[in-house]
Design a protein that fits this description.
Blueprint: E1 3-6, E2 12-17, E3 29-30, E4 35-36, H1 37-43, H2 55-58, E5 66-73, H3 78-81, E6 85-90, E7 97-101, E8 104-109, E9 116-119, E10 128-134, H4 137-148, E11 169-171, E12 174-176, E13 181-182, E14 186-191, E15 194-206, E16 209-220, E17 229-235, E18 238-244, E19 250-257, E20 274-282, E21 285-294, E22 299-302, E23 313-316, E24 319-321, E25 323-328, H5 340-352, E26 357-360, H6 369-378, E27 381-385, H7 399-414, E28 420-424, H8 429-435, H9 438-442, H10 449-463, E29 468-470, E30 491-492, E31 510-512, H11 521-527, H12 538-542, H13 549-560, H14 567-590, E32 598-601, H15 624-632, E33 636-643, E34 646-653, E35 659-669, E36 672-683, E37 687-690, E38 704-712, E39 715-723, E40 737-744, E41 747-754, E42 758-763, E43 773-774, E44 779-781, E45 786-792, H16 801-807, E46 808-809, H17 824-839
Parallel strand pairs: 25-26, 25-32, 26-27, 27-28, 28-29, 30-31
Antiparallel strand pairs: 1-14, 2-3, 2-5, 4-13, 5-10, 6-9, 6-14, 7-8, 7-10, 11-12, 15-16, 16-19, 17-18, 17-20, 20-21, 22-23, 23-24, 33-34, 34-37, 35-36, 35-38, 38-39, 40-41, 41-45, 42-44, 42-46, 43-45
């Protein structure tokens, strides 16, 4: 029987060439595997924390340095040594590697995203000295760029020239920390005759029964070429025996499973999983065994040409789904540091925020098996990008061969997961070909088109025929049609200078949109050390990687609240601004259901403390935007909006059951109700219905607010507030409220009783005790209403009334605006002036 033994040996790391400083050069460091150079040096106190302060720049030498990992592979025990093949299996090497066994070059790798195998027959008789030499990724990418010529790229120009996760070189939300390492486990495999090299089940429903179409790859030893083999596959008591013809390296078979329970996405039912067991044997001898979790579901990605253009939506087990998703980026700058528990916690967070889908973005990695298993168990669908993002990619050798091998490796590894919904060819590359005139800029050079229209769809059709391949995001479904046409397929929609611009687009499906905001203040203060922090102080700017990002924040702030001169006030209003922008977009698109079938917010998570689009920061703290999205992602919501100069209220029902909604519509003026009406609204499944009420027949005056509230059985009500003007001009009454607290074993309860209208009230509990977490935020309270926050904290005694009042925030205009704030228009004018000076 094949044995897989983790290589648990101690590894040593050494810099072998390049600009390593004196405290690193010439030394050996303990290096955990899986791991990378940054984590090993950090553990040895040879470098500071890469994401603290401006250490990103101080540690740039790491990416210019060559490294060597070395260890000893112990002599195999007699049972393993008796096998015909003994191999090292590297599940992830980052990136340009030369593998030496006892000083002899035994293998080379050039792709972070593939599994590599190296024979080590010497380990049968003696200890083996193993060395993995890793070349500077920067030098390797630069050499390929020099060989092939420069191509357009939205960010750093090097990622297209190396099969390494692109965001290692920096992105508009993350630092530039390109390094090297052995980032996934290494195993010793010993086997004879034959092994299972891939097991690919296509799982389907046939009426009430299930079917599993098995597509299995087999690798044989020389002696195993003539062996009589068979495969036994079983699920839940059903089994099938598949004979393997002599010499065959790929076989197919069918397994029927009567009346299995179905796998459902979150919100529709239980995500039921079954174990698929596959055994390869010869006679009575078992040679290899695989166990995979599978789920029986019928998932259809609907792309239908209609009078408006081309629809895009997901239906599971015959039930249409309004996708409520988030884009997913690598969860740490050192991705090997992300544990199975981390993945489960983050997926659980996404589910708690109302998500039913995560899109694994193409500038990162094919995630670990633990990530997909967590999604399987939580009922969270996965949209998986192939790893191409925001750049033109060369198709010359060796890249095409590497891309196909990488795709085959990962499609085979991941396709059994029932959570996996879509394979997507690239992020924005097809769009950029149109948007940035790549046809002219490339001058006939390759740019990745062959990957997206030939290699990748061919691999998916061959290995995973039951799933949809989408050529790119965004995509209109047609090579020569504008990819970001809102009437066709999926779009990315990035607002120019005000989130109210979401009103100007009527999409079928939005796979990227969002707005930036700061992390929790406790996260920020732990990493930024400016003596006097300000929006453009050095440490704050170090956290802002998007060109013009802070100027855009200020531009939108100015239109709604004013740009505060006080940094603490700026910080809170920038957080609220992000929350408002993202919620506004989600709610706009929800009111278009079923014409619009989904939204995927950019982005769920962060990999360092940053001003970014994330709704959860790197320290696992929810930003105010997370609470805003959670409200907008509830199954049933009310949305108050301006439509053609009049207030409008929509009842939105994204469930499969009709909603008999009771919606209360109130007009408020100077703290008093001037109109109050409750109406019944029949809302069909998967639809948004406008509410008809007398209070909606006249425009709102500048000093009026409209508040719509819908009761939800067993849940807190859904509430939406609409002002007759912007926040900075709205005449809020002086906030009047009382605070009480009650401690208990798990933390403290904080109750706020409102005596005036309080809009978007937030309790920033982490500003009292950094480990604190609240259950709700951004609550609008009417006079006479109360809200109780449940605060999970290890120090409940610190939450006295004075401390709570200090960290309570709500929506209000800036108390003193900054007359010198920088807007996006100012930044663009400065850029234009510099360009004009350069020309003259």
């Amino acid at each position: 029987m094949l044995t897989r033994t983790p290589l648990a040996a101690a590894w040593q790391l050494r810099a072998t060439a390049g600009p390593a400083p004196a405290n690193v050069g010439g030394r050996d460091f303990d290096a955990p595997v899986p791991g990378d150079v940054h984590t090993a040096l950090r553990a040895a106190a040879a470098i500071p924390d890469p994401v603290d302060g401006d250490n990103e720049h101080r540690l740039s030498w790491i990416g210019h340095t060559d490294w060597r990992y070395a260890t000893t592979v112990a002599t195999l025990d007699p049972a393993d040594a008796a096998h015909e093949h003994v191999e090292l299996v590297f599940h992830g090497v980052d990136t340009i590697a030369r593998v030496e066994v006892d000083g002899e070059v035994r293998g080379r790798s050039r792709n972070m995203h593939r599994t590599w195998r190296v024979a080590i027959p010497e380990a049968r008789d003696a200890d083996v000295e193993l060395a993995v030499h890793l070349a500077s990724p920067i030098a390797a990418a630069q050499a390929e760029r020099d060989r092939l010529g420069a191509r357009p790229s939205a960010f750093d120009p090097l990622p297209p020239y190396i099969r390494k996760k692109a965001c290692d070189f920096g992105w508009d939300w993350g630092p530039a920390l390109p390094g090297a390492g052995i980032w996934r486990p290494v195993e010793v495999e010993a086997w004879s005759t034959a092994r299972l090299s891939a097991v690919r089940p296509t799982v389907r429903l046939v009426g009430d029964d299930g079917g599993v179409a098995l597509d299995i790859d087999i690798e044989r030893t020389e002696s195993g070429m003539s062996a009589a083999l068979e495969i036994v596959a079983s699920v839940d008591g059903s089994s099938v025996v598949i004979p393997v013809p002599v010499g065959a390296d790929r076989v197919r078979g069918e397994l029927e499973v009567p009346a299995p329970r179905r796998w459902w996405p979150a919100g529709l039912g239980e995500p039921w999983l079954y174990d698929l067991d596959v055994t390869l044997r010869t006679g009575a001898t078992d040679l290899d065994h695989r166990r995979q979790a599978i789920g029986f579901r019928d998932l259809v990605v609907e792309q239908i040409d209609d009078e408006e253009g081309r629809s895009f939506g997901i239906t599971v087990n015959g039930v249409p789904l309004f996708v409520r998703g988030f884009n997913w980026i690598p969860d740490d700058t050192s991705i090997s540091a992300v544990t199975a528990d981390d993945y489960r916690r983050r997926v659980a967070d996404a589910r708690e925020l109302g998500a039913n889908l995560l899109r694994v973005w193409g500038g990162g990695v094919f995630e670990s098996d633990e990530f997909y298993r967590a999604c399987d168990e939580a009922g969270v669908l996965v949209w998986q990008d192939f790893l191409f993002a925001c750049a033109a990619y060369p198709e010359e050798a060796p890249f095409t061969e590497e891309v196909e091998a990488e795709a085959r490796d990962n499609v085979s590894r991941l396709m059994h997961h029932p959570s996996l919904a879509i394979w997507n060819g690239n992020n924005e590359n097809l769009w950029f070909w149109f948007l940035h005139d790549w046809q002219d800029k490339l001058g006939g050079a390759s740019w990745g088109e062959g990957f997206y229209f030939d290699v990748l769809p061919r691999v998916v059709a061959d290995l995973d025929p039951g799933r949809t391949y989408l050529v790119g995001s965004p995509s209109s479904g047609d090579r020569w049609h504008a990819p970001n046409d809102p009437s066709r397929g999926v779009i990315h929609w990035w607002i120019p200078d005000d989130y109210r611009a979401y009103d100007e687009v009527t999409p079928r499906f939005v796979s990227e949109f969002g707005f930036q905001g700061p992390p929790a203040r406790a996260t920020f203060d732990a990493a930024v050390h400016d003596a006097e922090p300000a929006p453009f102080s050095p440490g704050v700017i170090q956290r802002q990687k998007a060109e013009g990002g802070t100027e855009r924040i200020n531009t939108v702030l100015d239109q709604h609240f004013g740009v505060p001169s006080d940094f603490d006030e700026w910080y809170w209003l920038a957080q609220l601004n992000q929350a408002r922008a993202v919620r506004y977009g989600v709610e706009r698109f929800r009111t278009l259901e079923p014409y619009c079938r989904g939204t995927i917010v950019w982005q769920l998570n962060d990999c360092w403390p940053a001003l970014s689009w994330s709704v959860i920061d790197v320290a696992d703290r929810w930003k105010p935007a997370a609470f805003a999205v959670r409200e907008a992602y509830r199954d049933r919501i009310v949305v108050a909006r301006h439509e053609e100069g009049l207030p409008a209220v929509f009842a939105c029902n994204s469930t499969s059951v009709a909603w008999d909604a009771m919606v209360r519509v109130q007009r408020w003026q100077h703290g008093r109700v001037c109109a109050d009406e409750t109406v019944r609204v029949a809302v069909p499944p998967h639809a948004a219905v406008p509410v008809s009420a007398a209070a909606l027949h006249a425009p709102l005056a500048a000093d009026e607010a409209l508040i719509a509230t819908a009761a939800l059985d067993g849940e807190r009500p859904s509430r939406s507030t609409l002002l007759g003007t912007i926040d900075r001009d709205f005449p809020d009454d002086e906030p009047v409220f009382s605070v009480s607290t009650r401690t208990h074993a798990a933390g403290v309860e904080v109750t706020v009783h409102a005596e005036s209208l309080l809009r978007d009230v937030a309790l920033l509990a982490e500003d009292i005790v950094p480990d604190s977490r609240v259950d709700v935020n951004l609550v609008t309270l009417l006079p006479g209403e109360s809200q109780t926050w449940s605060v999970r904290t290890a120090e409940p005694a610190r939450f006295d009334e004075h401390a709570v009042r200090r960290v309570l925030r709500w929506a209000q205009a800036a108390t003193a605006t900054d007359p010198d704030f920088r807007s996006l228009a100012m930044l663009e004018a400065e850029k234009a002036a510099r360009a004009a000076d350069a020309l003259s």
